[in-house]
Design a protein that fits this description.
mainly alpha; Citrate Synthase, domain 1; Cytochrome p450-Terp, domain 2; three-stranded antiparallel beta sheet; two-stranded antiparallel ribbon; 20 helices; binds acetyl coenzyme *A
Length: 433
């Protein structure tokens, strides 16, 4: 087996750390230790307390926390594969519903499988009275994220399985995928209805009850009353959502798994992901990017704005990505959609500002040296606005597509040994004794 040879200069001991497919195990690093010192007698002791070497990785920049078979990303070569199908092939030949099944259950669905899930989802999409009541307590112009959490919380409180999860001695879902699947399908239904109710409430529209013959996307647009008015929206989002359905262990998917590792139910776990999804360095960047575009207003003001960013006056939101050191492969596919819906895109003058930023930034050494490029979420947001959505609804709607991927990871975690996620810290303040 390949291994890493480590010489510990503190003790003179050497260690062979196995390398498995480019990874070493943190537990093997933990075996590298120095003997504990008895400070009173100043001698080495056989301590039971581990003094093993630890890895400090703030922001998890080089640490894998799960083994997964769902999505493969190579950020250097610009490759994304879902269950080993490349994203381009899926984008051109399938719709979102197929991808949802592929990610969660590992294969492309039959019509009978689609119908079965549609019925289960639509059943969960019927909101109890408490959900609509909670949402109507907000002002209509309230921030979307707290409304999402409130709606999901109201759904959780009305769900018997969610409530039972916290009162059972044994794990409710681990190794019981049939029980997990019911809960998972219901969670997606709750996300869809919460988003549709918020959309209707903010736009003063009537909510349309779900239709069990429709797909997840078909139903959310149906409940919003959009597909009845403009079928193009479903056609466009059926492709765009494929690109956002999963992106392996993002900040929000990690939050879902982190919460899930406490044996929580999937509704509560997904709520943790929703919160992270709205953060400014994650999905929330879209709102900030959009606000910046509106402030810039016209392409001629772009150089002044970018120079201010370079002087440290804030970040260029919608730019940069932790994983991609080359072009995000989703951007090419988003551009295909943008040219398909060119007429609708051109109606938004901010797209010209965004393109001017892209042109300026792509030739500027600051952005080139740091590999900073427009991220797929920024460009995708123009498709949402072209389809008639207000910017404030974009993250909420895209979190419905992403909750599918996050729940695929949650389901996968149920087939692995139970292990509470609990990172370590390095304590750096002085100790009195
Ligand atoms: N604008 C200006 N400078 C940037 C930007 C940006 N958008 N992103 C990174 N940088 C600079 C940093 O200042 C840093 O410069 P330095 O080396 O001189 O200190 C360097 O690039 C590296 O930045 P990090 O923050 O260390 O990179 P990291 O990989 O941790 O960050 C992130 C990735 C958070 C996405 C970052 O690029 C960012 O803040 N972008 C803006 C927010 C955004 O668009 N987020 C959405 C990402 S997509 C998604 O999550 C849905």
């Amino acid at each position: 087996m390949e291994h890493l040879e480590v010489l510990d200069s503190r003790t003179g001991k050497s260690y062979k750390i196995p390398i498995d497919d480019g990874y070493i195990r943190a537990a093997d690093i933990g075996k590298i230790n120095v003997p504990e010192r008895d400070l009173v007698n100043d001698v080495e002791t056989e301590s039971k307390i581990s003094r093993g070497l630890r890895i400090l990785d703030t922001g998890y920049q080089n640490t894998a926390c799960v083994e997964s078979s769902i999505t493969f990303i190579d950020g250097h070569r610009g490759i994304i594969r879902y269950r080993d199908f490349n994203i381009e092939q899926l984008f051109h030949n399938y719709v979102f519903e197929d991808i949802m099944h592929l990610l969660i259950w590992g294969h492309l669905p039959t019509q009978a499988e689609k119908d079965h899930v549609r019925v289960g989802m639509a059943d969960a999409m019927n909101p109890p009275e408490s959900v609509a009541k909670v949402l109507s307590a907000f002002p209509r112009d309230a921030e979307t994220m707290p409304m999402m959490l409130a709606g999901m919380s109201a759904f959780a409180a009305a769900d018997e399985t969610v409530c039972a999860t916290r009162h059972t001695q044994k794990a409710m879902f681990q190794g019981r995928l049939d029980v997990a699947d019911v809960a998972l399908v219901r969670t997606i239904g709750y996300m869809a209805t919460t988003t549709a109710l918020i959309y209707c409430y903010k736009n003063n529209k009537d909510f349309t009850p779900p239709d069990p013959t429709k797909s997840l996307l078909g139903n959310i647009l149906w409940m919003m009353g959009i597909s009845q008015e403009n079928p193009k929206v479903e056609e466009c989002l059926n492709k765009l959502w494929i690109l956002y359905a999963d992106h392996e262990i993002t900040n929000s998917t990690a939050a879902v798994l982190h919460a899930g590792s406490t044996l929580l139910d999937p509704v509560s776990a997904v709520m943790s992901g929703v919160i992270c999804g709205f953060g400014p360095l994650h999905g929330g960047a879209i709102d900030l990017a959009y606000e910046a575009l509106a402030t810039i207003g016209i392409p001629e003001r772009v150089p002044y704005f970018i120079e201010a960013v370079k002087r440290g006056k804030g970040r260029l939101f919608g730019y940069g990505h932790r994983i991609y050191k080359t072009r995000d492969p989703r951007l090419t596919l988003i551009e295909e959609l943008m040219s398909k819906y060119k007429e609708e895109m051109d109606a938004n003058p901010l797209i010209q500002v965004s393109l001017a930023i892209d042109k300026y930034a792509s030739q500027d050494p600051y952005f080139i040296e740091r590999n900073l490029k427009a991220n797929a979420d920024l460009m995708g947001c123009f498709l949402y606005t072209a389809m008639g959505f207000d910017p404030e609804m974009i993250i909420a709607i895209s979190s419905v597509s992403r909750c599918v991927g996050a729940l695929a990871h949650w389901r996968e975690s149920l087939t692995q040994p139970v292990k509470l996620w609990r990172p370590l810290q390095k304590y750096v303040a002085p100790l009195a004794n």
